[in-house]
Structures are given as structure tokens and as C-alpha cells.
Amino acid sequence: MPREDFSVSITGALTGWGWNSYFEAFWQCGGWKTAVPARVIAQQRKFWCVAGEFGERSAEASGKLRLAADEGADWPAVGDWVAAELHDPSTTAVIQEVLARRSKFVRKSPGKRIEEQVIAANVDTALLVSALDDDFNPRRVERYLAQCWESGAKPVIVLNKADTCEEACARAAEMERVTVGTAVCVVSAKTGDGFGELEEFLRPGQTLVLLGSSGVGKSTIVNRLLGQTVQEVHPVRESDSRGRHTTTSRELFILPAGALLMDTPGLREMQLWDAEDGVAQVFADINALAGKCRFGDCRHEGEPGCAVQAALDAGTLDPARLENRRKLMREQEFLRRKVDPEARHEQKEQWKQMHRAQRQKYQQRQKDGGKQ
């Protein structure tokens, strides 16, 4: 059903939900005669809430889309732009197709299933939230960061609960050392301190997603940015600073300044999916050291002339960081064995070529004076 807690009228303004010439180019090539563009703004199991120039409406997948999804077509996720058919105003919209995504944050599906799960689509900036309390964990952030670099979105590290930590500056410096090139913002969602650092990412039409484990304060951040309480919050356990799910579904909100913010449930499992390039980017410093080893197949386990071991001995490389790199690389190797690598590579190359062509069209429109 359309949301009752927080709704924004955007009649005549698809741009209010992030529509731009990038998606317009795809739409013009689609040839949909009876459908209209709409954005998925909430999801509950097999039903969605979509928004467009018609306002907000509940939606379901068409039979054609269900059949196509069985063959590998994209299944709607929050943030997606879709072709939706509208009939009577009192009836549910029907999603016919998902428009090609500009970016997507994914993970391996929880449990034993070997398949991709889309967490958020068409995101410009991913706010990777970590708490500064006893649950502070740079290794977990490295995992999220690897998948984020693979997604196409720009990562920003948000260290929350600064009001509870006397070592906030030291922990921020530690995080900056392992996330070189990524902005690190220290905030307190409870007091509002530090939120000015986030303003540069909250531009109108830009889509952001909050990602992190339970208890890091994502829902409190949503309420702070919206200026009102729309997400229920619960205290974390004092024994280990871990939280329980307060957000149970993914939902997209329009912030007062015009940016769009997606809240997501805390992720108990965050296994990487097809993130070789992302892992390489997160551990670029270790890869650079590995390139200086005497032997090209050095495993960094005591071989002579190992530059990585030399950095460990000198104290310039954290052993936990090296071990985390090994762990994430093992996960990727496991996926390569379980998933047809040739088919996955071909699909990835097709995705890159399609988006390269669309970027060229998008850039040409910008040169011709088109609006973003």
C-alpha cells in the first residue's frame, strides 16, 4: 500500500525522485506505449510501492516479468526505475520491466543459495555506517567497502555515536588509514554533531543509501536527516553494543533539501558477490607491496624477499588487515568455483558495454545543453 507515514507529492516532477537524462535515454529506446516511468520506493516481499507523476501506488510484477526473471532478467529492487502500467486509480500498478541500472549494491544471498541479491539500485552515494562504540570494526567496513567499489556508487564512511566514544578522533584516524581515498565523517545521530559534513553529499536528485549492521544507528540517522521520526529505534545490548532489527524493509525517502535517502535493514550477513575489483581497490596498498616481492607467486607466508612480510615485521602493515584480505579473496575464489565464470564474465562485460554506450549518450546530451 502507499505509505502513510511520510509521503511527498511530486506531481509533474519525476526529477524529484532522481529521474535524469541517463534514464530518459533508456526510456526513449524502450518503446513502451501504455506504460509510464516509475521508481520503486519501497518493497515488501513480492509487492512494491512505486512513485511517479501519478503520486504513489502499490505495484506487482507482471506475468511476463516473472517469466523473464526466471531467465535472468532483473527483478525490481528499491531504487529501480521501472516501466509500470496504470489502470484504474484504485487498482495496483503492474511492473512490466526494470530499466537498466546505473549502479547496484549487491551481496551473495544469505544461507547456502549461490545467487546475487540486490540491496539497492541506482545509488549515487553509499553511506557505510559503523558505530564508534564497542562494536567498532574496521574489518567489517573493508568488506562493505569492497562491495561498494564494485557497485558503481561512491562510498562515504560514517562513524556514528561519537557522543559515546572518548577515542573518536583516534578511531577515525584508524579508519582513514584503511580506507585511503574515501571520505570519513564522524557524527552523532543522537546530538546532531558532525552532520554538516554530510551536506555536500545531499544534493537534490542524488540518491544515497545507508548500509551497515544492526545497531549502528541507521534509523536514528534517517530520523535526524528527515527532521522527524519515521523509523522506530531500539537501544543496543549493553553487553556487546549489538543491535536488533528496527528497520524491516528497504524504503526510499525524499529529504527536505531534495536528496533521496534509502534506509535498509541491518545486514547480519554480508558475503561478497563478484567483487574481485572491489577487493583489489580496498587492498591496493597490499597489492602494491606484493608487486615488490622477489617471487611472482609469493604467498606472503615467510618466503624470502617477501615485501609484505617485511611490512609486517616493520609494523607498517596490520596483520589483521592482511588476514582480512586473504579471507575476502578466499570467498571470491569459492564463488568462482560455484558459478560459471565464463557466463558471469560475459554478463559483466555486456553490462559494462551497455553502460559505456549510455554514458556516451548522456555526455552528448550534456554537451547539447540537456538537463541532468
Polypeptide structure, described:
There is one protein chain. The chain has 372 residues and is an alpha/beta fold. The protein contains ten helices and 13 strands. The strands form three sheets. A six-stranded mixed beta sheet has the order 10-9-8-11-13-12, with helices on both faces. The chain has a five-stranded mixed β-barrel with strand order 1-2-3-5-4. A hairpin with a 2-residue loop joins strand 1 and strand 2. Helix 1 crosses helix 10 and helix 3 (138-151) crosses helix 6. Mean pLDDT is 86; it is low at 3-12 and 236-245.
Question: Helix-strand pattern, N to C?
Answer: HEEEHEEEEEHEHEEHEEHHHHH
Count of folded domains: 3
Low-confidence parts: 3-12, 236-245
For the biggest sheet, the summary is: 6 strands, mixed
Number of helices: 10
Distance N to C terminus: 31 Å
- Quick one: how many beta strands? 13
CATH architecture classification name of the largest domain: 3-Layer(aba) Sandwich
Mean pLDDT: 86
The CATH homology group name of the largest domain: P-loop containing nucleotide triphosphate hydrolases
Radius of gyration using CA atoms only: 22 Å
Judged by helices, strands and strand pairing, the structural class is alpha/beta
Judging from the principal axes of the Cα atoms, what is the shape? Answer: globular
**CATH class wording of the largest domain:** Alpha Beta
User: Strand share of the residues?
Assistant: 15-25%
- Determine the fraction of residues in helical runs and give it as a percent range: 25-40%
CATH topology of the largest domain: Rossmann fold
Strand order of the largest sheet: 10-9-8-11-13-12
